């Protein structure tokens, strides 16, 4: 059961419309999560600005892997469907890499360090150890990159929380819970 209904195009607040129209054009349809989120122009446009800025951070496989592990930890089934879809179709990640990312790992050692760190940041609410930070540095990441990882964790957590609270109807292919994989 959804807790709120996604807005129809004529219900979208004027201040959300340009942002929502941009996503619809780029994606090819309007995801229910965005049509729900658009109810608050302030929150929706702030998130869209953050998403746009962070789309320049790291590489697409790493960003999608962070989205997968964060969504798995936060129990956001909607975001898991979205990130699994984008990881496969946009980042061109094979199915086994998507599952591995959801479990907090990657076959690529550099990406594995990021995913493990993102997992720790999410689970510990940012209370990571000096050794955790050093492990990411040792993998070749700068402090600026580490800040980007934390910002991505926060951004993905925001959409996880919005979707967990409002439970929009799923409009991406369903995924199996990682514990069952």
UniProtKB/TrEMBL annotation:
InterPro entries: AhpD-like (IPR029032), AhpD_core (IPR004675), CMD-like (IPR003779), Uncharacterised_peroxidase-rel (IPR010195)
Source species, domain of life: Bacteria
A Pfam short name: CMD
Domain Carboxymuconolactone decarboxylase-like per the UniProt entry, residue ranges: 44-104
Protein name in the entry: Carboxymuconolactone decarboxylase family protein
